[in-house]
Design brief:
Blueprint (H helix, E strand, L loop, with lengths): L1 E4 L5 H8 L3 H9 L1 H9 L1 E6 L4 E3 L7 E7 L2 E6 L6 E7 L4 E2 L1 H6 L6 E4 L6 E7 L14 H25 L22 H27 L6 H12 L1
Antiparallel strand pairs: 1-2, 2-9, 3-8, 4-7, 4-9, 5-6, 5-8
């Protein structure tokens, strides 16, 4: 696997590459300086077919965006040993956010698909966003943009689960979370968004655990089809 900091690439090429990612596009529109801070904490990873990107059990604060190719998400198949493919990640998708938000070990292995001749992934070091009281590098508006993006992404994924299994006990869990109704664009909103993102991440992990146990599916093909639609 080849890993290179984004700042090693021509700026024009980087801007074009990142313009398809909502988070980077939103932050750049608000502040070129804050955008530059993110670029300095980002890196581009190029993988060979079948090469591993993430390992279950690892702990870090990186979030990833697939730019090119395909990735396979795999977990241990408890019933017969070996690994089982749960989903395919396609270009434009955000992943790795649950582990980052909850500061917990990664729950799955991620590999470049064997049929992907070129797989490129953008990695963002999210330790920048962890301390909600530290604005020395990232300002309040930037952190608000980040957590708004996280909340939006998580709620969308949970709505997909809900639409697929409306009668399941978890179906309305995310809708029961109290929404922030206080003043906007302040530290109070930032804390509320971060808390909401972590709560949504926990619910999504519960859904994923249900899929991993096979309790919500009739067969493996049904699971693969749904998870692929969720991530596309």
């Amino acid at each position: 696997m080849e890993i290179k900091p984004l700042i090693d690439y021509p700026r024009e090429a980087v801007d074009k590459l990142l313009n398809v990612i909502h988070l980077f596009r939103d932050i750049r529109a608000a502040s070129e300086w804050q955008y530059d801070v993110l670029l300095k904490r980002s890196r581009l990873l190029s993988l060979q077919p079948g090469e591993q990107l993430l390992r279950a059990g690892d702990v870090d604060q990186w979030v990833f965006f697939l730019l090119r190719g395909e990735l396979q998400v795999q977990v241990e198949a408890s019933s017969h040993g070996g690994e089982r493919t749960l989903a395919t990640i396609r270009p434009g998708e955000l992943f790795g956010d649950l582990s980052m938000l909850l500061a917990e070990p990664r729950s799955a292995n991620v590999f470049a698909a064997h049929n992907s001749r070129e797989t490129q992934v953008l990695g963002l070091d999210c330790t920048l966003f962890g301390d909600l009281e530290d604005f020395s590098l990232l300002q309040l508006p930037t952190k608000l943009t980040f957590y708004r993006n996280m909340v939006h992404s998580l709620r969308w994924k949970l709505e997909v689960y809900r639409s697929k299994y409306p009668s399941h006990q978890l179906a309305d869990s995310h809708r029961k979370l109290k929404l922030y109704t206080g003043p906007k664009n302040c530290r109070e909103e930032l804390v509320a968004l971060a808390d909401q993102a972590r709560a949504l991440a926990r619910i999504l992990l519960d859904w994923n655990a249900e899929f991993g146990s096979g309790e919500l599916i009739d067969d493996e093909s049904d699971m693969l089809g749904f998870l692929e639609s969720m991530l596309s």
